[in-house]
Fold this sequence. Notes:
With 223 residues, this protein is an alpha/beta fold. Helices cover 35% and strands 11% of the residues. Strand 5 (148-150) and strand 6 form a beta hairpin. The chain is globular, with a radius of gyration of 17 Å.
Amino acid sequence: MARAAQLLTDAELARLGGRFERAPAAAVVRWAVETFGDRLCLAASMQDAVLVDVAVAVDPAIEVVFIDTGYHFPETLETVETVRRRYGLNLRIMTVAAQEPEMWKIDPENCCSAIKVGQLDRALMGKEAWMSGLRRAESPSRGDAPILSLDLRGLVKVNPIAAWTDLDVQGYIADHDVPVNPLVHQGYPSIGCQPCTHPVEPGADPRSGRWAGKDKTECGLHL
């Protein structure tokens, strides 16, 4: 029997994505859960637990993946544990072996692809689809992010909150008492690994603190 992902063309995903543009995020998650079952997972950065909150309300057993690069802020790792306890998560942590010398020091340009993308590839083995909290409002480079698409692996990429604004996120967090990484309130509107993430001034591009001074704008997970 053909897998669901193999039956979904770019055109069909675009049609479905258009249908979901004004649908609640929970409806997108429900479609993904019903379509892919246990061949679906959710990749979480633990900047906040908005998408986790939406997803576990649909399927409490959904697999949530967190990539522990070995370079995260302590606050991010604390948020992982807070979210795990809060929702009783089916949490899969992809852990990277310690490196000497540290890769971000000797090869910063390829560190993300070797560690983050490599670990996501491992997590997605045997999967047909994965979800992320990618949003168009996060940066100009994400301004046309689709709700549904095929990624470079041929898997279905699902972005249930792609159309949400910053106010949508803030309102959902307030209404549902969603856990948030404390760094968000300390000038870090976009949080990645500690060596490559810096605070930004109020009103600045939220992602300007990522890889500051470099041309890089994405780690590669969402390409």
